[in-house]
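During the second half of the funding period, the structural biology subgroup turned its attention to how the target accommodates small molecules. The most pressing case was 6-O-phosphono-beta-D-tagatofuranose, which had performed well in the primary screen but for which no bound structure existed. We therefore specified the complex as follows and requested a full 3D prediction, including the ligand pose.
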Amino acid sequence: ITKGINDLDKIILHQTQGSSVEVYLYGAHVTSWKKKGEELIFVSSKAIFSPPKPIRGGIPVIFPQFSNLGSLPSHGFARNRFWTIENNLSHVTNEVFVDLLLKPTEADLKIWPHRFEFRLRVTLKPGGDLMLTSCIRNTDAAGKPFTFTFAHHTYFSVSNISEVEVKGLENLDYLDNLKNRTRFTEHEDDITIESEFDRIYLSTPSKLAILDHKKRTFVVQKDGLPDAVVWNPWETKAKTIVDLGADEYKYMICLEAAAIGKPVTLNPGEEWKGRLQLSTRY
Ligand code: TA6
């Protein structure tokens, strides 16, 4: 554990061969993932590391509400709360990980009256793959179920958005956020981005990929997270986002592993698990 920007606490996990991951306790927010010393995650040069503002870039944890799909502030509150460290044991298998924990404060219970424990394990695998494992438990003794939507809002770093294709979404239905979430079917085999793009693809395969023709392929593997959001604000929208540089939309793409189409309901004592594994191919 060490001090990051604006004195916020962050944890750095290291592996051999120059792999590392940085995660801020503020938001349990991954802000860096490197392999062979090379940064794979986009964080805006204009990102404001100042609570309660969420950090622009990295891997925001979206819980308990994706976007404005309910009465909470957009994207819920997990991304702008301070998480605690539950343990940071190194495992015998050479994986390094840290377990972070979020529980609602009394103020949180006023806006979302449900007791829960959210454990996020951030694991850096021996080859440098990054794994995020989420366990959310309903700890409400009063016996009420609760329902949530969820996403790992990953901002991948790309050489240029014009070099990028997203694979694995062909023939799927999606909700277009730019058209009031109207439902369409994807007819393209490879998705390229040439203007503002904001879609929730429903019930996708568990393995997706981002091909960056000038750099690398990212492989995204997910369990318990049936949906995938693809987002790029493009030029005009980017100008309205104060913590994103005017040209930076060119160097990022969000491919988010999510549970949105079918919100998750947990009865008291029940637990939900989601898992995201990110790797690269060259
Ligand atoms: O996941 C896509 C999205 O919901 C977009 O609609 C866009 O607004 C983006 O997330 C960023 O949201 P934020 O609240 O971080 O500015």
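Two results from this model are relevant to the next phase. Residues 54, 67, 74-75, 153, 177, 198, 229, 231, 254, 256 surround 6-O-phosphono-beta-D-tagatofuranose (CB under 6 Å). The two ends are 32 Å apart (CA to CA).
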